[in-house]
Amino acid sequence: MAFELLQFIPPDFTLPALANAPDARMEPAPKDGVAPEGFHAMSIFPEYFKVNGEWLLAEESRMDCVPVYGDEKIHVIEFRNLKAGDKVICGRTERGEEGILVHAGGFAEENREEETFAFRQGHSRESSFSRDYDELYELLRYEKEHGRILWVLGPAFAFDYDARNAFAKIIRAGYAHAVLAGNALAAHDLEGAYLKTALGQNIYTQRHQPNGHYNHLDTINRVRQDGSIKSFIEKEQISDGIIYSCEQCGVPFVLAGSIRDDGPLPEVIADVYRAQDAMREQVRGATTVICMATMLHSIAVGNMTPSYRVLQDGTVRKIYFYCVDISEFMVNKLTDRGSLSSRGIVTNAQDFIVNIANGLGL
Amino acid sequence: MAFELLQFIPPDFTLPALANAPDARMEPAPKDGVAPEGFHAMSIFPEYFKVNGEWLLAEESRMDCVPVYGDEKIHVIEFRNLKAGDKVICGRTERGEEGILVHAGGFAEENREEETFAFRQGHSRESSFSRDYDELYELLRYEKEHGRILWVLGPAFAFDYDARNAFAKIIRAGYAHAVLAGNALAAHDLEGAYLKTALGQNIYTQRHQPNGHYNHLDTINRVRQDGSIKSFIEKEQISDGIIYSCEQCGVPFVLAGSIRDDGPLPEVIADVYRAQDAMREQVRGATTVICMATMLHSIAVGNMTPSYRVLQDGTVRKIYFYCVDISEFMVNKLTDRGSLSSRGIVTNAQDFIVNIANGLGL
Amino acid sequence: MAFELLQFIPPDFTLPALANAPDARMEPAPKDGVAPEGFHAMSIFPEYFKVNGEWLLAEESRMDCVPVYGDEKIHVIEFRNLKAGDKVICGRTERGEEGILVHAGGFAEENREEETFAFRQGHSRESSFSRDYDELYELLRYEKEHGRILWVLGPAFAFDYDARNAFAKIIRAGYAHAVLAGNALAAHDLEGAYLKTALGQNIYTQRHQPNGHYNHLDTINRVRQDGSIKSFIEKEQISDGIIYSCEQCGVPFVLAGSIRDDGPLPEVIADVYRAQDAMREQVRGATTVICMATMLHSIAVGNMTPSYRVLQDGTVRKIYFYCVDISEFMVNKLTDRGSLSSRGIVTNAQDFIVNIANGLGL
Amino acid sequence: MAFELLQFIPPDFTLPALANAPDARMEPAPKDGVAPEGFHAMSIFPEYFKVNGEWLLAEESRMDCVPVYGDEKIHVIEFRNLKAGDKVICGRTERGEEGILVHAGGFAEENREEETFAFRQGHSRESSFSRDYDELYELLRYEKEHGRILWVLGPAFAFDYDARNAFAKIIRAGYAHAVLAGNALAAHDLEGAYLKTALGQNIYTQRHQPNGHYNHLDTINRVRQDGSIKSFIEKEQISDGIIYSCEQCGVPFVLAGSIRDDGPLPEVIADVYRAQDAMREQVRGATTVICMATMLHSIAVGNMTPSYRVLQDGTVRKIYFYCVDISEFMVNKLTDRGSLSSRGIVTNAQDFIVNIANGLGL
After folding, report:
1. What is the mean pLDDT of residues B83-102?
2. Contact (CB, 8 A) for C357 and C169
3. A28: cis peptide before it, omega within 30°?
4. What is the pLDDT of residues D226-243, one digit of tens each?
5. In this structure, which of A354, C245, D170, D174 has its CB flanked by the most CB atoms within 10 Å?
6. What is the DSSP pairing of strand A320-325 with strand A342-346?
7. Of A114, A126, A206, the CB nearest to B206
8. Rg (Cα) of chain A, in Å, rounded?
9. Are B43 and B27 in contact (CB under 8 A)?
10. Which of D309, D271, D242 has its CA nearest to residue D107?
11. Interface of chain D against chain B, CB under 8 Å?
């Protein structure tokens, strides 16, 4: 059964509550990085703001950020990026009372009864994921042609020989449009490519190499010496792995810095808020987001991913958001967002990605 | 690379410490179910006892049980199964001092350095399991021809459509020689076959059936009405699933009772010590044991599985013991037994079994 | 703020749907241990059955068991305990249509909004439990005088010196009216009392005793030799611990057998269904149930604990059910029962019980 | 039993292997941020380097960083902080062969047998922690007078009313000399003080406040408006909580930025490597480090904490490192460092801190 995009049902603005709604109130930001009192904060749902009698959809939303009007559009801005004087929309009602409409039910024709239940139950190790896998294969095939698939990878994801290979295949087959990760993931993956080890153990046999604990430091130091990952790949004749495949296929990756980093690799963004900006840049285009085996990055990306995307032709479509983790705590934290498009899979990400590659016939 | 059995190196009984060792001391059990003071308790390793100047190997061992001499053999008996007067071997030394030799290093030619490290580290969600999978495929192919593979299944294992199908294929392809489980696993599996649901949800779509919470009770009640699982399969024309495949292929299964049972199904053994006996009966023949997603049954089987098997021709070989669970706590509890033949895989058992079926080409 | 029992609001049987409801249909059990088709199965809520024009409350309910009419009362019977000819009530509607009323909202005056939310959210390591602790202290003080507190203990609960002492104090102070556990808990606790070790390590210093791995076997064997726990306590002059405190204070304990048992101790009930009966006997009187650090026993007790109790004077009151475990999976599995009286606390049971003893001023 | 510091046994430099060892080899860093090939990387143990015939101890070490000679001392420098031309010590042997000595056994008089075992076993929910708690109480009393206690807090630590109060007491009683955390912990704690909620729920009753999901944003925005946490505390008359207590008692806190941050608060350090530097500044003085309920910060601090501290008078003493987390995975990851001074406690950090406050008599 091939994947079909759900139709989006826009609000009926002729309803009296909306037709008669006042314009949304705007207040200037009192200083850089500060919102006026009573600011409105965004949800993950499509939100509309009445400006000069017209309802404007915030096209690129982000939870817990503020709507700012400018250039006849609604921009969704992080607090830290506000400029003094920005016209921030204020009001904390959601049904038009103050010219603000949160439209949570736009993809309502999906089978609500069933989905609602699945949502309510949470996911556990005992949930059945067969259908989720099958749907995901269909979704990925669809997105390869029509969307953008964003993968978010935890630090240990590259430790497993099969998982690393499976994901490299996924990249090369066109199922990855961007990768978000951190210094550790990249360093481990490059160590695997450069010295064939993961933290000093042979990446397949797990046999310890003599002085192998130096390997990840030697790798990072060499990349720093070479000046960039790109240059390292060339000079050291790297020919496998996740980062290599990204470079080769032109898949952008963002490496966000964290306080646990060694090194770091030259491409890592030290300022976490600049890193957020770079990540959001990738999220802005994404239609499916799959987070694997990382709490830090998954929460960060979850925070910046709305439930919908406005395509270039104006179509509003769902964003699919998956969180794959071995811990129910993590999966339920990420997917308990009130959105039907959030799915959690409780398993080891290594097996997950091997299954995905198999399921896609790679 | 095909699987090769490690050679067993028996003790060198000509060494002075062993050649000059006294006979093992025996004391009669003072009453039924009670061992004499100073009783020896078995480990998981091959153990030899000097009787009338000859070293006898306990051929079918079980940890924490006692060695009893009779019929010129060493029998390993549970406390509860001791009879008054049984000749229990006493002594708590291990190197011959009292005629008792615990031979822990018999499979020493394996790569010790590497394995020892793996053992010391424990396993976690971040361990690489690629090689473990590959080795397991080889092992299973070998055991299909030359050994006996015992599978131990947790209660929720049959909830997942793909996992249930994968395991049924494994049975039908000859990779399962016995199955140990409980009432819940069998009831869930039979509900899947009879009513196509798992706890009332469609087993594939997860859609709730009206009054579906009755389904598992209706299934159990029907089996009880029909008198046996065998009869239920016939009368209700069951044609898929784990239990069905076992019945069809003549694979014995033991269903042990527990205090959490509904019903129970007629085949469930209510007395847990009789259940232990029935389980050990299957373990006695097993050369590979794979426990999936169950704490109760895994610990029970782990307790009764030694690290070696004496084949009919007298060959001593390793028993391979795997524990597959999503929790590091569980996996490390089970595999931290000082035995090199114990392996843990930290993942969701659903994905594990799907991977195994794929890896075996099923 | 002292604890106050919520008032129970019985159904309004004058409502047309109930007043005009037909009598409940009864069918004879077709044979021992088998219910007639269409049997009704109980929930955890108060349920009423119309018999001869009168609504009868099932006074001692048990989930997933069947209502049987006899002696002018509704008995709730396990499938395995049905006798051929028992008058089993049939029907699977819940609002009177077939003379069956499931009365889920009887304790409605509690703050629904707040509680409902807490229920929906599930519990995690990040939930705040301060208020739960305070409420529990009040509840325990109330129950000490007016109710019965049933504690369910996992196998490792006695490993910790402080936890073992704290729970012994709780028993001696009158906050425990019955204890449910298994062979392992009792064996570990008695080893602590007899040899001052837990699995061979000094129970406080954790220092290994020479040959300490024999200690739990020596303990069990000695109890078996002495004939009973009671006799062991006398002969070996045991003077501390959980089981000792139970014996001394006349607090009944039920030890249910499981397939993981060594020994077992003489009091352990080998037949799990007889064990269920003995456990339910204790549950019948309980008004608060606290399960700690056990999946097997918690699920078993959860299955047999309804949400209400009918006191001797006919008052219907809530039963409070707590599940304390370090795993969200376990806690949510147990407390996700649709009942407002279910509470989960995600923590190590050792710290929990030390907190409870402190909070009660012991 | 009062706490006593273990005596440090320095290496015996008169042993031939050390007396005859060559001087350590130094190579200039080839460019900023890059170490020369063959660089030596530090462990957590005391390490000595032979320079001009004398053995110099690296006084402030950090794992996986490089030793640089300058000003007649050994400085331990992060890769990113290396300057071109820095004299980096090279060599990857550890027993003097290249003038490098890793002195792992300096605190050897502690009971090795026992400790070693504890180390090997790992910690689990079933470990006994009674003695660890008692030792920790003694340690904290000692450190209050003679050392520096560094606390590392996870983001959700301030959600629990009791835990927040307990930790505030610990600060006010002088048991905290520095606090490391992130934006979320501070924002949650300040929300609790400002609006009496945690993520919009009353921090004690858990009752949802109307529009409570705005509370953490309103708090952050207000702090940003006020310009600093200090100014916020004054202007908004904050009078309770963790951050307030730190400010009041002059306990420094470092808030490290992360990609999951909202806001952020003005004091949060956006550049993670500058944040590392600020954290290490606090670690340099610490003699006991306690990490609670955070993977990110615990790993970061674990990476920068050596096993020893050189006091002002030249005494070498142990650093005690505790990791408290509900997940065995996390605890074992952090404490499996080959150092006897690492301890893990598997529990909910809320209960842990309440226990600690009780145990200290606060």
Report:
1. 97
2. yes
3. no
4. 999 999 999 999 999 999
5. A354
6. parallel
7. A114
8. 22
9. no
10. D309
11. 120-122, 124-125, 328-329, 332-333, 336
**A56 within 8 A of A47, measured Cβ to Cβ:** no
**Dist. CA B258–CA B215, nearest whole Å:** 21
Chains C and D: how many Cβ contacts under 8 Å?
106
What are the distances in angstroms from CA C290 to CA B55, B295, C322, C325, C334? 53, 21, 5, 11, 11
- Global pTM value: 0.94
Answer left, alpha or beta for residue B14, where phi above 0 means left and psi between -120 and 50 means alpha.
alpha
Candidates D185, D43, D175, D171; CA nearest to D103 is D43
What region, left, alpha or beta, does residue B291 occupy, with left being phi > 0 and alpha being psi -120 to 50 degrees? beta
Distance, CA of B308 to CA of B318 (rounded, Å): 4
The distance of D337 to chain B (nearest Cα, Å) reads 11
d(C-alpha B345, C-alpha B322), whole Å: 7
Separation between Cα atoms, residue C317 and residue C304, nearest integer Å:
17
Residue labelled with tokens 């990110």: D296
Among the partner residues C120, C125, C333, nearest to A329 by beta-carbon distance: C125
Residues of C in contact with D159 (CB under 8 A): 126-128
The residue to which tokens 């595999």 are assigned: B335
Asked if C211's CB is within 8 angstroms of B262's CB, the reply is: no
CB contact under 8 A, C328 and A329: yes
A163·B130 Cβ contact <8 A: yes
Write out the two tokens for C83: 């006798």
The contacts of residue D18 (CB under 8 Å, 6+ apart) are D11, D12, D55, D96, D101
Q: Are strands A66-70 and B253-256 parallel, antiparallel or unpaired?
A: unpaired
- The mean-pLDDT minimum among D117-131, D181-195, D345-359 falls in D117-131
Which tokens hold the place of C143?
Answer: 């129950």
Pick B328's closest partner by Cβ from D121, D329, D336.
D329
Return d(Cα C181, Cα C175) in angstroms, integer: 17
**Which whole number is the average pLDDT over A4-26?**
94
Tell me the two tokens of residue C72. Answer: 């002018």
Distances (CA, A) of A184 to A159, A261, A294, A296, D280: 11, 7, 11, 12, 20
Those residues with Cβ within 8 angstroms of residue C26's Cβ, 6 or more apart along the chain or in another chain? C69, C87, C88, C89, C90
d(CA A255, CA A267): 7
- pLDDT of C89-122, one tens digit each? 999 999 999 999 999 988 865 544 444 334 335 6
